[in-house]
């Protein structure tokens, strides 16, 4: 837990006290959420898209906060009994505090980025590593500056390995994060069309993902996908040790003799037989990446193999639920063209009487949105679906693409949002049906699960 004196906090942040406090206590942790702040913690006010933390400073004081960190522009009211430290930007101050705390712990730092699978790979790697080490991982998709800083503040002496997910919507964001944490092991899962509003092109995505190398030295290890041409170009730029994984090309972690079995996938790698309980061939890439991380962290093949049987995916990633003879595949956490294709391939191979795809908009694709949504529609038409539901303004192109590719019009439905889809979907369902839910996060297709699975 973060423990600082007031003078240390001022020195680290470069801030100035904006009032004459009555009480000056040591800092026992930090919070950016006034609803959850604990007595003795410092409250750091952040101005976000929806809320401004400065509006909740008095709430934090009433909950016995030990100090306040606010922007210079915040007018400090008279009579505030605890120190108010004013800084140019509170998010920058948060980073400085988090970095100071991070430097107190000698540990192995692992950073993961990529267009698809970074959260799943982080989750799997931590599951394997935790069989030997005390592991701290960034929760959910805490992969921006705020999320990374808050994760670093959770470090304690029991942690020997830190696993971070690095995300970005625009150039330079991963560079900033990797220079901040300086990973000992860096990994790129793949490079694919995503966040094109910020990156503008696939080459822009590749350049952004390659920024992870900027925080890594020759003593670091870079792990990446040997089946991905962009990843191989990035690998060629790194002067240190490199490790690769693949399903197709030769690599250090090359899954071969892949067999789909009832409860997962069996494969052979480096002369050893392995079994993955995870659904979908695309998750085998995530597993191989995780195994490569664990190996570089010092775990033995036996330790890694023993940990595989208990692996599970994070919520809303190929999450299968059944009731009344109907199966729902909830893969609605997020979507881009590559992950959408993988989900359709999994649906195609899933044993069922009928197959129904509910596909929502893939957001942040910029000027390429029309092209990629139409392409998914074409792919959906080729999967012999019984019904296709397209949800969201952008997803109209999925419906159009499917129709133009020969899917019967009476099997295609389009809705602007997911509010009224149940009126058409639910009466269609029969025993033996499987329903895939896949869309970008803001479409909230997971809300349909409870309506389908009663």
Number of domains: 3
- Please identify the top-level CATH class of the largest domain: Alpha Beta
Query: What percentage of residues falls in helices of 4 or more residues?
Result: 25-40%
Enumerate the spans where pLDDT stays under 50 for 5 or more consecutive residues: none
Beginning-to-end CA distance, first to last residue? 43 Å
The helix/strand class is alpha/beta
In spatial order, strands of the major sheet run 9-10-8-11-12-13-14
Radius of gyration: 24 Å
The CATH architecture assignment of the largest domain turns out to be: 3-Layer(aba) Sandwich
- How many strand units? 23
CATH topology of the largest domain, anyone? UDP-N-acetylmuramoyl-L-alanine:D-glutamate ligase
How much of the sequence lies in strands comes to 15-25%
Oligomer: single chain
* Full CATH superfamily name of the largest domain: Mur-like, catalytic domain
């Amino acid at each position: 837990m973060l423990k600082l004196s007031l003078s240390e906090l001022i020195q680290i942040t470069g801030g100035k006290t904006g009032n004459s406090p009555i009480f000056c206590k040591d800092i026992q942790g930090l919070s950016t959420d006034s609803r959850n702040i604990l007595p003795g913690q410092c409250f750091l006010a952040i101005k976000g898209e929806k809320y401004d933390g400065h509006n909740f400073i008095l709430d934090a004081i009433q909950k016995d906060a030990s100090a306040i960190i606010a922007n210079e522009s915040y007018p400090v009211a008279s009579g505030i009994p605890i120190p108010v430290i004013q800084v140019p930007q509170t998010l920058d101050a948060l980073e400085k505090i988090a970095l100071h705390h991070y430097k107190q712990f000698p540990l192995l730092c692992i950073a993961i980025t990529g267009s698809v699978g970074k959260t799943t790979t982080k989750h799997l790697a931590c599951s394997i590593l935790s069989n030997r080490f005390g592991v701290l991982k960034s929760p959910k998709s805490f992969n921006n500056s705020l999320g990374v800083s808050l994760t670093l503040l959770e470090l304690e002496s029991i942690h020997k390995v830190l696993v971070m997910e690095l995300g970005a919507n625009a150039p330079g964001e991963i560079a900033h994060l990797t220079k901040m944490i300086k990973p000992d092991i860096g990994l790129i899962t793949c490079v694919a069309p995503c966040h094109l509003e910020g990156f503008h092109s696939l080459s822009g995505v590749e350049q952004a993902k390659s920024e992870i190398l900027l925080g890594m030295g020759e003593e670091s290890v870079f792990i990446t996908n040997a089946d991905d041409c962009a990843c191989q170009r990035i690998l060629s730029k790194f002067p240190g040790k490199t490790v690769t994984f693949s399903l197709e090309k030769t690599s250090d972690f090359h899954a071969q003799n892949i067999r789909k079995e009832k409860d997962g996938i069996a494969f052979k790698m480096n002369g050893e037989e392995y079994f993955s309980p995870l659904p979908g061939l695309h998750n085998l890439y995530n597993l191989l990446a995780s195994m490569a991380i664990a190996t570089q962290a010092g775990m033995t093949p036996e330790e890694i193999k023993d940990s595989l049987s208990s692996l599970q995916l994070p919520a809303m990633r190929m999450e299968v639920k059944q009731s009344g003879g109907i199966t729902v595949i909830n893969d609605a956490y997020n979507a881009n063209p590559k992950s959408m294709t993988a989900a359709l391939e999994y649906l195609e191979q899933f044993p069922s009487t009928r197959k129904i795809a509910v596909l929502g908009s893939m957001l942040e694709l910029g000027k390429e949105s029309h092209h990629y949504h139409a392409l998914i529609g074409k792919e959906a038409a080729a999967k012999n679906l019984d019904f296709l539901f397209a949800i969201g303004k952008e997803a109209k192109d999925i419906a159009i693409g499917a129709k133009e590719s020969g899917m019967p019009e009476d099997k295609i439905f389009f809705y602007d949002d997911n509010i009224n889809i149940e009126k058409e979907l639910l009466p269609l369902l029969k025993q033996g049906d499987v329903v895939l839910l896949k869309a970008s996060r803001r479409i909230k297709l997971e809300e349909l699960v409870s309506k389908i699975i009663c």
